[in-house]
Batch of 3 targets.
Target 1
Amino acid sequence: MSKLIVTPEIEPNQDGSILRITPESAGWQYVGFEVLRLAEGETIARETGEREVCLVLLGGHADIRTEKQSWQGIGKRMSVFEQIPPYSVYVPDHDSYEITAKTALEVAVCSAPGQSSHEARLITPEQVGVETRGYGNIERYIHNILPEQEPADSLLVVEVFTPNGHWSSYPPHKHDRNALPEESELEETYYFRIQPEQGFAVQRVYTDDRSLDETLIVRNGEAVLVPKGYHPVSAPPGYNCYYLNVMAGPVRTWKFHNDPDHEWIMNKPGK
């Protein structure tokens, strides 16, 4: 299996984790990602340390408490494929969070270096920017959970729904050079869910010089590391694809560069 694919555990470990990516395990500097699965009534508590965190409720309801704030009974969807925006909680570095599952619960823990610049806050579904990108069979649907217009120190967090038979992260684009204003350097993780679950998605990760050039078969619950290069995604016919992106780098802005060979696709008349 490719070193870019991270496979989940069958059962949660003692702190509820079924998938964990750290900067050390990924071999990079900024992005951390984890998925927690809790049974109804279970509680976990953690310190954030030097890292800011965005807790994204993938499915289920929860009580969440930080050092100064608390929110009771948050959550709306039970599955990401309800395709409604999630509840999320932003927690700064040098804080803590406690999650109590009010139902069966899955939570994504997105993290990156913090600078103690912001307070903990709830991000409601109504605060999530919803948009459609692309056209035809490159149309996909976006939930901007923590975009650069909203306060955070490093984190950028977004959900993408790719209908069956469609492509996303397309035309192929990259963001691996600190060359602003044209391009920003951002590490990125993709966390995939597939409907029906026996399906798969296809993701290619490649650089201009092809020193990295992999085509990945990604299954339900797996994550992909994108340290550099272009990274388009395809959802095969019959299988809808969801992914949660976490990005972070030296500057908190998303400026991407399209693969010149394929940029013409977005220049189609009337698009």
Target 2
Amino acid sequence: MMCYEGWIMKWTKLTLSTMAEAVDLVSNMLSELGIEGIEIVDNVPITEQEKKAMFIDILPELDLDDKTAEISFYLGEEDSLQTITYQIQEGLRELSGYVDVGSGVIEVSETEDTDWINNWKAYFKPFRIDDTIVIKPTWEELASVGEKDIVIEIDPGTSFGTGSHETTKLCILGIKKHLKPGMHLLDVGCGSGILSIVGAKLGADRIFATDIDSNAVNSAYENAEVNKISTNILNIVSGDIISDNTLQQKAGMECYDMAVANILADVIIPLSAEIGQHIKPGGFFISSGIINTKKEQVKAAVLENGFQILEINEMGDWVSIVAQKPVRD
């Protein structure tokens, strides 16, 4: 979407009233509708452990009796407000069979704040994935870094992937556990490039990444440069590896020790039929972005396409499946 000099883009802000327990499911539903850059406000307290991991000192005062939540997002002038609100209401009706979605009221307002897409940066602070991996926004400074810390600097821009969401954390932990120095890595749906960068920092010496969004490719290359990841190691291409034969050939056949995909269940299911031809026998397929209500569907697809499941890891309402391509006799 272009914004020409001297012309102020008008954005429509939608704020959806729901319940804190439904936030993950509603967020996933919005993502499936193509809505990105959501803002969540609730009264769920963070733990002392999370407080330390996020490098913050002061916890906000919360009304713990208030279980409601608000999810805000923006639509451009070319988006159909009527269509989007109808799709959201249909999605809420479906989710109400699983969880209390609250009132589902959608408030609409208009803004001319052309920099709204960057305003969230005030809330993106350095945090730990585990005892050694630290995610740091490019515009923030770290007070201290441990000897064994691996620091990943990220500016996601308009792409998915700050590392803070459970799906990305699960994927990063899977990569750390199974990736060995010298391995070749395939990253499908790379977004900001965070998983490719983690792989490179952990010793992968060849990485091929793809994303259907050309803007994500630019963002991933910029983040790779900030993290001093050479283009000799990382190659990023725009396209859909599930359906694009040219991209499939460019990626190469049976040449990766590990493939990772932090996308959505409805994409991972068809991807599991394609990805195996790119993975070496004995190689790993780590998928994430799977809402727990679709775990069994993804599990069935992974097994049906010849993989052996090694682990199923869960965090909150999200699932990651670590599978392996069998070694030939």
Target 3
Amino acid sequence: MRPINLPLFFVCTILVSFNPSKLHKNIQPVPDKPNVILIFMDDMGYGDPVCYGGGPYQTPNIDRLANTGIRFSNFYAAQAVCSASRSALLTGCYPTRIGISGAIDHNAGFGLNQSEETIPELLKKNGYKTGMAGKWHLGHVEPYLPLQHGFDEFLGIPYSNDMWPVYYDGTPWTDSTSYRSTYPVLPLIEGNKAVGYIRTLEDQSKLTRMFTERAVQFIQTNKNNPFFFYLAHPMVHVPLAASERFKGKSKGGLFGDVMEEVDWSVGIILKTLEENKLLENTLVIFTSDNGPWLTFGNHAGNTGGLREGKGTAWEGGVKVPCIMSWKGKLPAGVVNNQLATTMEILPTLASLCGAPSPQQKIDGIDMANVLLGRTTTIGRNEFVYYYDKNNLKAIRNHRYKLVFPALSQTYGPPAVIGKDGYPGKYGTDSVKLALFDLWTDPGEDRNVLALYPKVAEELNSKADQYRKELGDGLTKATGTSVRPAGLLKN
């Protein structure tokens, strides 16, 4: 059995289901055009917020969101890597359906196709103002930057904050034999043009505040219009950096300092909404793009005891925190344990905000009626775990997860874990066919394939449908319902 070093906080969580007759007796009518704030973290693990078992740092504002809204305990990013995950969030599609994979950088030859309809594009059709601050990561040249995908304004970085020619200690990279030496200076983009550059760790330490201040400015400017703002924080992705106000102040080292500054950001957003009397007309969503990058050791987050982390198809790679809060409209202090994903956010927002649905097929499920207490069923019967370019690594239903034979990155032996901002090295694991009961074994330790062969057969049959529709590199299947990414011209 694989040893687990982190406590399984979530095992002790009391999971409750919606009871509309009890939870919504005093709920007011839903506004026609609610505002939406979508806060998307980078590499924040399932166990990082205190309300999910994190610490010893404090996250009172994130916890406040959970106490005033719904905390999801079975919520998934579509893939365990940046660009793929972000494409799924904004389009409601499995990344492989729309040709996105990996974490693209300045050498990428593809980006999010302009034919794909995003959340801001759909909401703009119903009169919404749209803005974004933070990390984009879906195409670094003008035809594929946020303004070309539905955002009225954008301040941020084009890809991950570690895609720059800087060494792990913050000094310029000098080794010309390393791929990192090929990176240009990390640009800060306003609209479609670079307005500055991120050259040092001191520059990195200003990003959380800078992007939070842009969100505040956007809210204040558009308080009399329906609006959608996407705050995609570069943190807690390495290199970690906290401002002077937070550096050295937490009880959790630099990672804890960064968590507390991110939590401050959430608090400022809530304070701004409250001061402008917008809390009762604004849905706030807080979630993450994938699990923690564990090879960075004490600069990485916490899976809450889930297996592995970012870059894998194990639960620690794709199961993420998610909180939705809307004063007076959603129930307060509820834990929802149904299967849900980031792909549900687009159709749910389209429904709540009166926007049209995408013309092309998506994979997300509208769960607006679940949020509002009109039903208890989300309707997602399975989730497929794709990774690498297009490898179908696993499939789960509400209870069981079938894992297919494949090679996988691993943070276990023979991997080496890093420290203080320096990375370790991945290991490689030859994964065998296995079935896990996620209700009783969320850490994926005990293979029950021999006990439930019919469950495995049913899941594999369902996986065959996805192989036919979306393809599968492991079985050399070509998908019949996939669309190409956009081709970039550098």
